[in-house]
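Record 1 of the preview.
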Amino acid sequence: ALALAAARSSHAPHTRCPAGAAVTWVDAETGEPRAAAGFSIESAAHNPSLPPLQAALVAALAAGLPSLGAVTGAVVVERRRGRVAHAPAAALALGSFAAPGATLVTLHATGGKREGEGSGYESGDSASAGEEV
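->
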C-alpha cells in the first residue's frame, strides 16, 4: 500500500513512468516492523533523477533505519511495459546491501489513464504480491 501510494505521488513528466517503492526493516529497540516509501522524481534533463528505491531508502534512514544492511525487503510498483523499469536496478541494489533473505516484490500497474494524463494509477487500486494493479 505504501509503494502504491508513493507511485501515485511520482513526478515523471518525461518518461511518464511513475513508480513507487517501500522498504521494510525491524526496529532494533522494539522488534516492531517498520516501513518507509519513496517515489520516482524526474528532473527536466532526466539526470539527475531519483529512482523510487533510492527515495525510499532516504526516507527509511530519516525514519530510523540503522543501516542499509538492516533492510529486510522491498516492494516496487511500476508500469508493466513502461519506458523505464525500476525493478531490475532495485533487485541488484538489494542484493548488494540488504539483510540475507531480503525479498523484493514487484507489482506491475496497468494504469487507468491515457499516456500523459496524471500518474496512471487510479484511486482505489490495490494489489497483493504477484497481482496486477
